[in-house]
Write the structure tokens for this entry.
Amino acid sequence: MSSATATAPPVSATEDPLSQFFPGLVIDHTQDHVSYQANIIACSVITWVAAAVFVAARFYTRRLLLQVWSWEDWVIVLSLVLSAMCSASIIIRQFSPPD
């Protein structure tokens, strides 16, 4: 008795729509169900935290050590806040139901 598996046969290069632009391209469509949700959220959070560390270091050196605060510093703080909002919208979009 043979055991039947429920895997889809791989799509050949001639059946793949990208093969007309990239000859010899073979794409394994058996892994199409993989979600990148965790990677997107991790990337969004890690890059924002790195930016926050650098802005905090700039704030520490300019405001506390040099006693200098100019309009560029306000702009970088504003950009940090806006990037936090952008990262939050990416994360919220990942958890929202599909349209």
In short: Residues 14 and 20 are 8 Å apart (CA to CA). Helices lie at 37-65, 71-95.
